[in-house]
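Q: I'm building a small set of examples for a reading group on sequence design. Run inverse folding on the following structure and report the sequence directly after it, with nothing in between.
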């Protein structure tokens, strides 16, 4: 068969030069300005035609013993501006292929295109695929560009036969590679800057799903995955058009341009849609891998049909377990049993099982709407689903993918796939809410109202999908949701309060002076009930743990617990326990005659630095600078003056490793106080190596926070020596810092300073305003 007569092969452009191809590809992009299937197909068509012409020129039109084959994404016709040309030159054993190959590859390089190429006989290609999963998966998408189609048919048949025969071993290997990549590249849906190819839920997982389908192991979802794949591919194409590079990472800097090219309102809308697409792919992958691995770790067999495996174990009214999944009973009628979907989902999660995809589809299309208000069994089923721990996540995700969650809780659409603003968050807003319920499920035994705890966990950040302060915006929709769920007015009021105040404990504990009586009193007054305070404490715990691994530290947990104990005492009419600000050893520092530093582990997993020194304005600023130079992050600071000696105590955490020896800190602090070390200059030198591009700091005076001190709050981009700079600015006005609290969230920090005047009380109004202006100028 002549090369240019091969059925389905590209029409050769035998006389095009590399420059002609570059011009033709540019014309395709110019005439298809919006990324999409049409543009990718046109780019593939013009490139394939040129490649076919190269083969005609290199081998002649009557040579029937070679075939040029596109593999991988090129084989699927998904050619992007930055795509490699993935080519396999197949040949019969008797062909002198080397000179032919050179005449094909060199013009491709001359055109400036990236080339991933190989030259093999059919047996060689088959043996390589049997050893290398990457090669095998590429060949599963092989497409003839030009040449002898019999060679490709032989190869495809052999590779598929080998793949299906070796699936038990090869799928385990493939699963291990997917798991490693997921751990390394993260999940596309939840990343601020996802890798559209490598992140879990990206294009690499689509290739994996096609490989599993080709192995005839289990069914693979098609339509939802096809739509999601289009979204991710369009985004990748836009990214490569804008950057002019073969890049797959959707970095922040180009997201606005990509959003504009794809007709999204802004970068957040782009990330949300790409994230939802990635989540659909990831969910399909999770379901497929669950089925593959359920069939046995030592061997993989084809999934048996219901007729072959009639064994069905009753699970709950209307649902049974079959072949490791929850399916509907034969007499189940979703159309006349509106609670069935929730009941089956709760039973599946409580049993650590998944609802079968077919069952999910039936429930989504056949279920009758729940009556409003919900009957008690429906609400109980929702609570049971939320309280199932880790098993809640895959069941909830399946319901969400099918659109069932938004039919039950329409407000869920506000946060579905919504990206987080803060980098400390690991998950999107909706996934964070589910994870908070997972964390709360382990705390339900500590509460007499686990139902309100779990509902509070699910709803606490719902307001992030609304304008304004998310706590209050979310609380405003709680009455509507609570009434729909059938809660009484008292429970709705508690749930509304949990949502409105879910940040109260964490922010107060980390940003207010625990030694100030006004701190615990403010919490007690706002919460008003010991029972609600306990629920709020549990919700705070669950919320922080669900945010990310760096949020709920031992230090933060201890601060919150101590605040709750003091507020609980006030609410119960008991004596508020005294707060030990200084240990006996630390108080002994008031007797020193020169600078003395003590460093010891603290009970909160960090370290405590205690300093005694002759009293002077600016001691805290100098100490903060020395600690920063030694890579110690200050979490809190207190000062106490006894006669002519000042005692300063700081809770610190090393940025990495262990802290320096206490004697080294003492030596450097003495040198700094005597002027031998220019702390300001050294910190400035460190900051000069960093790129600073952040919003301006915000400096405010807070009212009603303390009875006997002026409180200054600074919100700024975290940077080395920030506490030193602020404390130094305060000291320059002749004002003392009694206490300082530092709360760091990713790259942002909130510093709160309790300031005292010469008389040991709050500052006069004009002095306070002057301090604020001086600090703001120092941070400008």
């Amino acid at each position: 068969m002549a090369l240019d007569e091969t059925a389905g092969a590209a029409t050769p452009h035998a006389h095009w030069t590399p420059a002609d191809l570059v011009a033709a590809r540019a014309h395709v992009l110019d005439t298809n300005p919006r990324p999409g299937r049409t543009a990718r197909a046109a780019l593939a068509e013009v490139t394939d035609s040129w490649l076919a012409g190269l083969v005609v020129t290199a081998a002649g039109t009557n040579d029937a013993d070679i075939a040029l084959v596109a593999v991988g994404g090129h084989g699927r016709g998904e050619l992007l501006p930055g795509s490699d040309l993935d080519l396999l030159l197949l040949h019969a054993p008797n062909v002198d292929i080397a000179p032919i190959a050179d005449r094909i590859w060199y013009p491709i390089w001359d055109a400036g295109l990236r080339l991933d190429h190989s030259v093999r006989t059919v047996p060689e290609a088959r043996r390589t695929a049997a050893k290398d999963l990457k090669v095998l998966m590429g060949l599963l998408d092989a497409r003839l560009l030009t040449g002898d189609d019999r060679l490709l048919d032989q190869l495809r048949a052999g590779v598929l036969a080998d793949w299906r025969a070796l699936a038990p071993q090869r799928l385990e290997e493939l699963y291990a590679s997917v798991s490693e990549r997921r751990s390394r590249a993260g999940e596309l849906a939840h990343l601020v800057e996802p890798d559209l190819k490598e992140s879990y839920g990206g294009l690499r997982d689509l290739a994996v799903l096609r490989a599993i389908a080709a192995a005839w192991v289990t069914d693979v979802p098609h339509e939802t995955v096809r739509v999601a794949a289009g979204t991710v591919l369009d985004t990748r194409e836009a990214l490569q058009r804008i950057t002019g590079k073969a890049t797959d990472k959707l970095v922040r800097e180009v997201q606005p341009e990509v959003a504009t090219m794809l007709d999204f309102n802004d970068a957040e809308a782009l990330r949300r849609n790409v994230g939802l697409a990635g989540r659909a792919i990831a969910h399909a992958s999770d379901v497929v891998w669950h089925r593959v691995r359920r069939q046995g770790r030592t061997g993989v067999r084809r999934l048996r049909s219901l007729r072959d495996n009639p064994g069905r174990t009753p699970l709950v009214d209307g649902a049974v377990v079959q072949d490791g999944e929850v399916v509907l009973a034969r007499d189940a009628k979703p159309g006349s049993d509106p609670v069935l979907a929730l009941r089956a989902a709760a039973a599946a999660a409580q049993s650590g099982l998944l609802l079968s995809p077919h069952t999910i589809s039936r429930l989504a299309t056949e279920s009758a709407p729940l009556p409003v208000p919900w009957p008690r069994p429906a609400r109980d089923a929702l609570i049971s689903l939320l309280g199932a721990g880790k098993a809640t996540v895959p069941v909830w995700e399946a319901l969400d993918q099918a659109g069932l969650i938004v039919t039950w809780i329409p407000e869920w659409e506000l946060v579905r796939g919504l990206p987080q603003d803060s980098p400390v968050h690991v998950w999107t807003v909706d996934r964070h809410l589910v994870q908070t319920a997972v964390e709360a499920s382990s705390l339900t035994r500590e509460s007499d109202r686990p139902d309100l705890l779990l509902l509070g966990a699910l709803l606490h950040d719902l307001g992030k999908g609304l304008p304004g302060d998310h706590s209050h915006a979310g609380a405003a929709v709680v009455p509507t949701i609570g009434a729909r769920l059938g809660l009484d007015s008292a429970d709705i009021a508690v749930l509304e309060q949990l949502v409105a105040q879910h940040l109260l404990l964490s922010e107060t504990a980390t940003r207010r002076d625990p030694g100030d009586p006004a701190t615990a009193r403010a919490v007690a007054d706002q919460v008003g009930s010991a029972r609600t305070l306990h629920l709020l404490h549990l919700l705070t715990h669950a919320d922080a743990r669900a945010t990310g691994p760096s949020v709920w530290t031992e230090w933060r947990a201890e601060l919150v617990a101590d605040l709750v104990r003091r507020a609980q005492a006030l609410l119960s009419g008991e004596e508020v326990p005294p707060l030990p600000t200084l240990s006996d050893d630390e108080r002994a520092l008031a007797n020193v005659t020169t600078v003395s530093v003590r460093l010891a582990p603290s009970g909160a997993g960090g370290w405590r630095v205690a300093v005694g020194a002759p009293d002077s304005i600016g001691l805290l600023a100098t100490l903060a600078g020395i600690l920063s130079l030694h890579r110690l992050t200050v979490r809190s600071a207190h000062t106490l003056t006894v006669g002519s000696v000042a005692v300063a105590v700081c809770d610190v955490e090393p940025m990495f490793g262990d802290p320096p020896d206490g004697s080294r800190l003492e030596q450097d602090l003495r040198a700094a106080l005597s002027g031998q070390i220019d702390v300001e200059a050294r910190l400035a030198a460190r900051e000069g190596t960093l790129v600073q591009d952040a919003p301006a700091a915000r400096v405010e005076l807070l009212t009603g926070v303390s009875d006997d001190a002026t409180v200054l709050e600074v919100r700024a981009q975290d940077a080395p020596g920030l506490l030193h700079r602020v404390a130094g600015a305060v000291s320059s006005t002749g004002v003392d810092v009694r206490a300082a609290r530092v709360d760091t969230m990713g790259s942002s920090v909130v510093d709160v300073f309790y300031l005292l005047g010469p008389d040991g009380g709050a500052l006069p109004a004009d002095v306070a305003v002057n301090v604020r202006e001086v600090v703001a100028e120092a941070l400008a």
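Residues 591-779 form one domain.
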